[in-house]
Amino acid sequence: MVLLTLGACSRKPAGMTTTETIKSYPVTTLQPADVELQSVYPAVLKGQEDIDIKPRLEGFIDAVYIDEGSIVKKGQALFKINSPSSVQSLANAQANYNTAKINVERIRPLAEKGILSNVNLKTYENAFLSAEASLNQAKSTMGWTKVTSPVNGIVGAVPLRVGSLVTSTSVLTTVANTTTIIAYFSLNEKELIEFMRSWEGNSQGEKIKNMPSVKLLLADGSEYEMPGRIETISGVVDAVSGSVNFRASFPNPQGLLRSGTSGKIIIPKTIKNTLKIPQKATFSQQDKVLVYKVQGDSVVSKVIDVKSTADGLSYAVLNGLTAGDKIVTDGVATLKNNTKIKQQ
User: 43-75: b or e for each residue (b if 16 or more CB lie within 10 Å)?
Assistant: First the structure.
């Protein structure tokens, strides 16, 4: 009987939490501060000038003077085209020119002596001028057999080689001027409205001038060392995608950025007097972001609206918490509503 009585006395009523089961959690009191946010958008990178190199006449590639990735200067020879039809046209034009010249030289003395009329002479002179123009055109066409670069830049793929038949529609290669790289990205209508309201200015041009420098995140996750600027915003919303195109430029003196690659544009924005919390203090539930708010000696879950900060480790709280609130900053996965805690 004594043992039973002692056992009964040692029992706790159901639901009572012993001091030993109450765990300690780190808690912080929220205070407003200036927070830098960042918006990230996928981007496609292009050279300042991306030019398809095409021959201006039909023929066969006779020589290739460059290779893929070569750095070329404006006016530098890239290809030589062997154009039999152009050679034949030049020969015919030269023959016609010679004949017309001989005719003028033969008729002029006769016209001067009155044997033939000046009308006859004028006819032959006009034929000579026409033949001369055709010859000059044929010579110019033969100049097209040397295909040169229209800009300074880097040579892209060279799909055709010596002996390949080409026409005026054949793309021999692409030369990209990459001293400046253009990043193209887009925002949907909702993002655009919010974005444009964020910057001072009475016109789009003024707002663009007041926008901060943007950053470029490369494909390997690293950040490009040089900042860029937003240059233009399309004035038309794409009817299919419902988005608006933006263009930002980045200097590329070392040639690290290549045309045709991808990246991500990071647009920073500072919000004043905003609450900042660590991302590890939050958890997700049905596409909502929540935290555990401390009330007395317990916690309750709280839905909040947030945006990522520039450091990538924190959130700026847009709604759901106020200055002076206390939240658990770590170990939230082990908590649930009304759990009693010790504050660290």
Answer: bebbbbbbbebebebbbebeebebeeebebeee
Same domain assignment for residues 220 and 255: yes
Beta strand segments in the chain, E: 23-25, 27-29, 33-53, 59-64, 71-72, 77-82, 146-148, 153-155, 165-166, 173-188, 215-217, 229-233, 243-251, 262-278, 282-285, 288-295, 298-308, 314-319, 326-328, 341-343
Q: Is the pLDDT of residue 11 over 80?
A: no
Structure tokens belonging to residue 158: 């060279």
Find where tokens 């009693």 sit: 340
> Identity (one letter) of the amino acid at 197?
R
CB 37 within 8 A of CB 269: yes
- How many structural domains is the chain composed of? 4
Q: Tell me, yes or no, whether 14 lies in a domain.
A: no
pLDDT tens digits, one per residue of 292-306: 999 999 999 999 999
Domain membership of residue 8 (yes or no) is: no
307-332: pLDDT as tens digits: 888 777 899 999 999 999 999 999 99
CATH number assigned to the domain comprising residue 243: 2.40.30.170
- Residue 80 CB contacts under 8 Å (≥ 6 apart), including other chains: 61, 62, 63, 65, 145, 146, 147
Q: Which pLDDT belongs to residue 8?
A: 44
Please write the tens of the pLDDT for every residue from 231-272. 999 888 888 888 999 999 999 998 899 998 999 999 988 888
Residue 171's Cβ-side half-sphere holds a number of Cα atoms within 13 Å equal to 11
Distances (CA, A) of 241 to 36, 233, 238: 30, 16, 6
